[in-house]
Automatic annotation (TrEMBL):
UniProt entry keywords in alphabetical sequence: Signal
One Pfam family from the record: SIMPL
Signal peptide: 1-27
Domain of life of the native organism: Bacteria
Protein name according to UniProt: SIMPL domain-containing protein
Record has Signal as a keyword: yes
Gene3D superfamilies (UniProt xref): Protein of unknown function (DUF541), domain 1, Protein of unknown function (DUF541), domain 2
Taxonomic lineage: Bacteria, Pseudomonadati, Pseudomonadota, Alphaproteobacteria, Hyphomicrobiales
The organism of origin for this protein: Ciceribacter naphthalenivorans
One GO term (biological process): DNA damage response
Amino acid sequence: MNHLKTTRLALAATLSCAFLLPLAALADDQSPREATIIVSGEGDAAIAPDMAILNLSVVREAETAEEALRANSQAMSEVLADLKTKSIAERDMQTSNFSVDPLYRQDKTDDGSYVAPVIVGYRVSNGLTLRVRDLTKLGTLIDAAVKLGVNQGGGITFTNDNPEAAITEARKKAVATAIEKAKVLTEAAGVKLGRVIEISENFARPMPQPMYRAAMAKEMSDAAPIAAGENQYTVTVNITYAIAQ
């Protein structure tokens, strides 16, 4: 009998705890939240590029895929060999976007309908991505590549091999701007700035700029003029502060 009574008391205590726990959690949820202020600051730093990414393509068409491939390979081999003589390292040359595509012709009948398309030839495209670390050679490289058979591409992206110093400078400017903004806002509101709760950042690399898009004439008497300009690195910093009570 005593054992049964003890068991009932233990069960009642367990049920009481089970009901009290949600109430305690609810009480915690309803407790006053810490007052905060969220500010953001943007900083940027501009530096001259020291490297260019150049995209070139050799495109050849022929009646058969074999003929188109042979002509394309010969032209690209000459381009690669010439680039090596101009001190472009193999690590800075990469094949990209290689493709073999059929060329179709679709004739129209007398009644206005179309017959089934037929293959009339093949197009072989072989892309080449170059990292040019000496920007003074860029125009000459484009000129030589076109004369050797490059007939598509020409998109250039100016970049920096190691932009960390500029990014660090942009970060410092962004943080300083955010801190100053927080001070102004809290002073205007008549409250005091408390501890830092959270810091986050958004970093945007410079957008690729197609400074040169080659029409790829068969002959170019002068090296293509190139203007590198500057790259601007932008950082946005978000800081969450507590408001001192």
